């Protein structure tokens, strides 16, 4: 292109060749340099590729536009548009096929000389070539040539044709085009429409025009300034792009009145726009004096029929090189690959990398997409990270119905896998709380049942000042000590700790036996000592020392206990006070601390302070065993908040708080947040049945959480609720027999609005008014109806529900609609083409808990 910036073209069928068009045509061959060195004379295009010059063609001066022949044979045939309007066929190689040898050098001459602006080969009929020319008042601006037509020496005599200054040559001339279009106008850009061989889109001087060669006297056009660079999306043949100055317009040929989209205007004029041939909806634009190519990724989202929405545009910029870019060309087959050329003919091979989009499913499956490839992250077999993830644990627990056992509450820790000792302690504590609350309610309803769920901290605080001191003997020693009688609150606290069972008798024997069976010798000895049974404590220590897994040092501890004396200045007391801190086991240490303490040291005030301190420690650590102290109170919510912050286990937090918390605790924002997040998790995992079970469980334990009816079917005439009216008692003075229905209301058929008596809509399939049970429609037996109604005792089974499409408003009985859409895609109403079921994005989803692994 004489006096202009160079252009570049990839070969349509030879993926390793391209042409640079300037004052001459230069053919290059691209080869990989990954495992080889750069050859002499080659041009480096990128780190992995280089170009070698194959041939140069200087026979066609004054080039204005170039188009590569689209057919396979001949391979290197190009059409060149010149400044005088002529179109010349030339070649960049020696083709030995005599069939096409006559085409080389052929010229197509318009009646009046003027500049040729654009060329376009027909993709369906490879012999047709369209040329767009400047305006001439007595000539057409769009000429369509047949390159195989005979030359016409009788019309234009053979003469010397001036090609350049001082040089002449005799050529074959064709002067009669196949079609002539666009009289008294200028054509700035052209492209054939791939959907039809005889449809041509032209960017004229002031409008975009679609010419139909079957009727050249008529054309469809739209007035616009965006008439340059018209190009068709190769993946969506009704979408066309054009530009004017710095603005790009996107057209839909089905709605050709106005652009469907106008891209962001650039500060400088555009020089080229091109659709990517390997990527759907990707448009590249280049502005003058710029080293940046802007990419527009047009993504369409499915919308209901009839809704007009603009496509989502993702805009980004790439910089293939540092210098200004004169032109670029997409590679025809390599994905997102292009080659750019600068004004000084420096070239660069560049690949546009796709943005990687990650998708992390709720079941911890990680996938990402890059271009046309979809990758999945596969965990190694020895990697147990997923097993430790709390989301995986909660998902498995939900499948095992964790938290839903309200009778044997302690069994929930087994449903959780019986691996976490904190969960075991939590559910046993909740089990005891539920058990003792029921017992206390039976004895004295409404008295102290709520105190059980308040925790040991509140129970002990309420018992202060209600104890009496007395003298009790040590078991195994002829000595007495001052102790405190246990009131109901203290007994309840011991019961919650599991030390004693139901009843008023303070007997820790069963609890000691269970500790001995589990091998907790030190703890059992400490509990026996706290109950003033020093002989039993010594026996337990001896048993532990003689057992297989026991510690022989327990005999030494038992020997030390046997020497107990209550004299303050005794050597035994002095040595035990000094050496007890060196013991590693906390139970052994606290045993000697108890024996060496002063009388009266364990009064109620000190105990209350200790419980307060221990409660704060549990709350800070988020230790679930602290629920025994805090109960399901505000302190319990604080403790559970620390636990959730540490583990993320909203499942346990939700079930625990619902177990017996008072109403003010359940209304706490944190508790509601945990519950809603757990419900959302179940929905995300597609555990819809589990979420429904959780909602039922929640409504039983917290009646205030039961939601009100949010959706109902209303009459189209009076607006009253049909579903509510059908489920309540009929209007006063009017029985069901007046509507031709006898029997109980559960067997009624309501085919009209109970409010205004207008008939209900008809089912699109059975054509019977809605409200009529499906089983009583033609084709069903009456016996089936009786069986169905007596089975579930409901007014309307799901098959009888009102169902309609929100787009076309057609519908009917749910059972009929489901049956229809199992075999059909379109609406059952005649002449309606709505694909109702495809508009429902969740209609074909299956609950995950029902899917077989």
TrEMBL record:
GO biological process entries: cellular response to amino acid starvation; positive regulation of TORC1 signaling
Q: What SUPFAM superfamilies does its record include? A: WD40 repeat-like
Concerning SMART domains, the annotation shows:
WD40
List, alphabetically, the GO terms of the cellular component aspect: lysosomal membrane
Enumerate the UniProt keywords alphabetically: Lysosome, Membrane, Metal-binding, Repeat, WD repeat, Zinc, Zinc-finger
Q: Which InterPro entries match?
A: MIOS/Sea4, MIOS_a-sol, WD40/YVTN_repeat-like_dom_sf, WD40_repeat_dom_sf, WD40_rpt, Zn_ribbon_mio
Subcellular location(s) per record: Lysosome membrane
List, for all copies, the residue spans of the domain called MIOS-like alpha-solenoid. Answer: 394-609
Q: Which residue intervals define the domain GATOR2 complex protein MIO zinc-ribbon like in the entry?
A: 715-837
The record's GO molecular-function terms, alphabetically, read:
zinc ion binding
Coiled-coil ranges (or none): none
Query: Primary place of residence?
Result: membrane
Q: Which family does it belong to?
A: Belongs to the WD repeat mio family.
User: Could you tell me which PANTHER family the record lists for this protein?
Assistant: GATOR COMPLEX PROTEIN MIOS, WD40 DOMAIN-CONTAINING PROTEIN MIO FAMILY MEMBER
User: According to its UniProt entry, what is the function of this protein?
Assistant: As a component of the GATOR2 complex, functions as an activator of the amino acid-sensing branch of the mTORC1 signaling pathway. The GATOR2 complex indirectly activates mTORC1 through the inhibition of the GATOR1 subcomplex. GATOR2 probably acts as an E3 ubiquitin-protein ligase toward GATOR1. In the presence of abundant amino acids, the GATOR2 complex mediates ubiquitination of the NPRL2 core component of the GATOR1 complex, leading to GATOR1 inactivation. In the absence of amino acids, GATOR2 is inhibited, activating the GATOR1 complex.
Self-association state and partner proteins as the record states = Component of the GATOR2 subcomplex, composed of MIOS, SEC13, SEH1L, WDR24 and WDR59. The GATOR2 complex interacts with CASTOR1 and CASTOR2; the interaction is negatively regulated by arginine. CASTOR1 and CASTOR2 convey leucine availability via direct interaction with MIOS. The GATOR2 complex interacts with SESN1, SESN2 and SESN3; the interaction is negatively regulated by amino acids.
Q: What is this protein called?
A: GATOR2 complex protein MIOS
Q: Which organism is it from?
A: Panthera tigris altaica
């Amino acid at each position: 292109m004489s006096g202009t910036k160079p252009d570049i073209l990839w070969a349509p069928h030879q993926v390793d060749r391209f042409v640079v068009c300037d004052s001459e045509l230069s053919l290059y061959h691209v080869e990989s340099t990954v495992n080889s060195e750069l050859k002499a004379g080659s041009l480096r295009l990128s780190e992995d590729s280089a170009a070698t010059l194959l041939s140069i063609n200087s026979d066609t001066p004054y080039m204005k536009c170039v188009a590569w022949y689209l057919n396979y044979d001949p391979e290197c045939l190009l059409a060149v548009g010149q400044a005088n309007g002529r179109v010349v066929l030339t070649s960049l190689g020696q083709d030995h096929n005599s069939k096409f040898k006559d085409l080389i050098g052929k010229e197509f001459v318009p009646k009046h000389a003027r500049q040729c602006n654009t060329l376009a080969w027909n993709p369906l009929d490879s012999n047709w070539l369209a040329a767009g020319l400047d305006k001439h008042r007595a000539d057409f601006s769009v000429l369509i040539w047949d390159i195989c037509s005979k030359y016409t020496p009788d019309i234009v005599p053979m003469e010397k044709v001036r090609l350049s200054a001082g040089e002449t040559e005799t050529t074959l001339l064709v002067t009669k085009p196949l079609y002539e279009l666009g009289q008294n106008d200028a054509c700035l850009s052209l492209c054939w429409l791939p959907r039809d061989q005889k449809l041509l889109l032209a960017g004229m001087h002031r409008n975009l025009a679609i010419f139909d060669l079957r009727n050249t006297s008529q054309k469809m056009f739209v007035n616009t300034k965006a008439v340059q660079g018209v190009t068709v999306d190769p993946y969506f043949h009704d979408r066309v792009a054009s530009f004017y100055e710095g603005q790009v317009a996107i057209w839909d040929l089905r709605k050709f009145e106005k652009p469907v989209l106008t891209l962001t205007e650039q500060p400088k004029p555009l020089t080229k726009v091109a659709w990517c041939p390997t990527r759907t909806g990707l448009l590249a634009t280049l502005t003058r004096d710029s080293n940046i190519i802007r990419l527009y990724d047009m993504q369409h989202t499915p919308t209901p029929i009839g809704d007009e929405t603009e496509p989502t545009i993702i805009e980004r910029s790439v910089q293939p090189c540092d210098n200004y870019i004169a032109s670029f060309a997409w590679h025809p087959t390599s994905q997102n690959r292009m080659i750019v050329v600068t004004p000084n003919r420096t070239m660069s091979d560049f690949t546009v990398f796709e943005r990687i989009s990650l998708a992390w499913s709720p079941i911890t499956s990680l996938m990402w997409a890059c271009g046309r490839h979809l990758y999945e992250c596969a965990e190694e077999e020895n990697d147990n990270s997923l097993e430790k993830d709390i989301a995986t644990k909660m998902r498995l627990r939900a499948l095992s119905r964790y938290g839903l056992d309200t009778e044997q509450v302690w069994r929930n820790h087994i449903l959780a896998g019986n691996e976490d000792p904190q969960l075991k302690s939590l559910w046993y504590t909740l089990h005891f709380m539920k058990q003792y609350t029921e017992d206390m309610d039976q004895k004295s309803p409404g008295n102290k049942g709520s105190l059980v769920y308040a925790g040991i901290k509140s129970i002990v605080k309420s018992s202060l000042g209600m104890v009496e001191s007395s003298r009790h003997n040590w078991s195994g020693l002829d000595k007495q000590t001052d102790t405190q009688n246990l009131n109901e609150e203290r007994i309840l606290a011991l019961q919650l700790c599991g030390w004693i069972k139901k009843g008023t008798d303070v007997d820790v024997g069963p609890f000691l036996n269970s500790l001995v069976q589990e091998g907790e010798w030190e703890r059992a000895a400490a509990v026996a000592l706290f109950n003033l049974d020093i002989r039993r404590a010594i026996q337990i220590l001896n048993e532990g020392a003689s057992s297989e897994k026991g510690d022989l040092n327990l005999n030494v501890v038992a020997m030390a206990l046997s020497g107990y004396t209550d004299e303050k200045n005794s050597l035994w007391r002095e040595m035990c006070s000094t050496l007890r801190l060196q013991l590693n086991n906390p139970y052994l240490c606290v045993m000697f601390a108890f024996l060496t303490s002063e009388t009266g040291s364990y009064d109620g005030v000190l105990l209350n302070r200790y419980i307060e301190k221990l409660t704060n420690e549990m709350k800070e650590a988020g230790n679930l065993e602290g629920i025994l102290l805090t109960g399901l109170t505000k302190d319990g919510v604080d403790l559970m908040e620390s636990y959730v912050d540490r583990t993320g286990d909203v499942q346990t937090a939700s079930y625990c708080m619902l177990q017996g918390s008072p109403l003010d605790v359940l209304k706490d924002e944190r508790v509601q947040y945990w519950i809603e997040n757990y419900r959302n998790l179940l929905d995300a995992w597609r555990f819809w049945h589990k979420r429904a079970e959780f909602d039922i469980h929640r409504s039983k334990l917290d009646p205030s959480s039961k939601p009100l009816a949010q959706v109902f079917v209303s009459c189209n005439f009076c607006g009253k609720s049909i579903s509510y009216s059908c489920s309540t008692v009929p209007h006063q003075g009017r029985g069901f027999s007046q509507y031709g229905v006898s029997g109980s209301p559960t067997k009624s058929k309501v085919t009209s609005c109970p409010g205004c008596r207008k008939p209900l809509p008809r089912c699109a399939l059975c054509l019977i008014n809605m409200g009529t049970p499906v089983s009583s429609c033609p084709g069903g037996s009456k016996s089936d109806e009786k069986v169905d109604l007596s089975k579930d005792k409901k007014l309307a089974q799901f098959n009888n529900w009102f169902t309609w499409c929100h787009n076309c408003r057609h519908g009917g009985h749910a059972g009929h609609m489901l049956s229809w859409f199992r075999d059909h895609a379109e609406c059952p109403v005649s002449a309606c083409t709505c694909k109702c079921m495809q508009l429902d994005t969740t209609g074909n989803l299956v609950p995950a808990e029902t899917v077989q692994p």
